[in-house]
């Protein structure tokens, strides 16, 4: 409205000049004063609009107040990161990509994770903690636990999870380059706590002398699971020789079952002989 009035006033002055009428100094001065007021009003409106947009962006990036809402947002980010990485496992998805797929502002990601590497480590941590949760729940049950129970848990929560072993391979390198020291330390501490709990529970079901023996057995088992996958189970296995492959069992699952059975049985025999 102010701009329209300014244009009408300017037009009337020009018409007056065209008919030979000279605008008085007061009219000209009033015109420029009015123009300055209009310019100031436009600048003020623009500033207020800019502040409003910035406030909206800030609100989008502000962490939700309740723990439940924060957890939901965290899972949204992890789901998006996992989905993007599975589509392009040759690279780590960028923060902007993850935010876009999760339907959140880019700044929101940094409220939860310091970097894209920390975000990917969190995806792997979610896989690891899901396995431990299932293992601890089963081992805490009163009825006896068998090696076959352990193999079923391993298959369901490690081998059959598409991103688990590929991501575990990648994260092993990121822990020393890319992941923040805080995130790496928190991950290692969390895994150590779960290992101690699970190792202690396993000693109730199997001939293991103490919790430390259970922890060592779990760590050796994981080394076999991941190492054999890299050797013969991945899309780009280390072992490509037909001669060597012929010496192994026909697939990763059967080779893993045989290797883990040998490890566990050998551990129990050593403990019985001690």
Describe the structure.
The protein is mostly helical and 274 residues long. The protein folds into three domains: 2-61; 64-110, Orthogonal Bundle (Arc Repressor Mutant, subunit A), CATH 1.10.10; 113-273, Tetracycline Repressor, domain 2 (Orthogonal Bundle). It has twelve helices and no strands. The chain has helices at residues 2-18, 25-61, 67-87, 95-102, 106-112, 116-140, 147-159, 164-174, 181-205, 211-233, 242-245, 252-273. Helix 4 (95-102) packs across helix 5. It is globular and about 60 Å long.
Rounded average pLDDT: 82
Radius of gyration: 33 Å
How far apart are the first and last residues' alpha carbons, in Å?
A: 95 Å
CATH topological fold name of the largest domain: Tetracycline Repressor, domain 2
Helix content percent band: over 70%
Model regions low in confidence, pLDDT < 50 over at least 5 residues: 6-10, 13-24, 52-60
Q: Beta-strand level of the residues, as a percent range?
A: under 5%
